[in-house]
Amino acid sequence: MAKILIIDDEETLRITICELLSFVGHKICEAEDGRDGLEKVKEFKPDVILCDIMMPKLDGYGFMEEHIASEYSYIPVIFLSAKIEPKDKKMGGILGVKQFLKKPFVFSELEQLIENYL
Q: Which of 20, 40, 64, 91 ranks highest by number of CB atoms within 10 Å?
């Protein structure tokens, strides 16, 4: 069982991912934007972080800038986003994002990516 933090402003998708990952035995925490996500990382200390790119208050790039400068920078981050172009992958790579998964995705793909980082 892994501890997984899901940061996404799309509530329906976030809840669905939470339910599916909980069903397969993971402990889940959720955040609705990058700012909330940074606080949840400190409280929850996840094994893996799933993060959207486009969010209000603090987007995925802003989250990563602060995450890599924190004491929790060792926690791997997987970006989940409909916005995955070469420039997004380049920026994410610079900021330390481990993997990208394009929305919409098949749950088994997400599950496999998570397993790769546990």
A: 64
C-beta pairs of 96-100 under 8 Å, 24+ apart in sequence: 96/64, 96/67, 96/68, 97/64
**1-82 sits in which CATH class?**
alpha beta
Residue ranges per structural domain of the chain? 1-82
Sorted by sequence, the CB contacts under 8 Å of residue 8 that are 6+ apart come out as 14, 17, 30, 32, 50, 51, 52, 55, 80
Does pLDDT of 83 surpass 80? no
Least confident interval from 49-53, 67-71, 81-85: 81-85
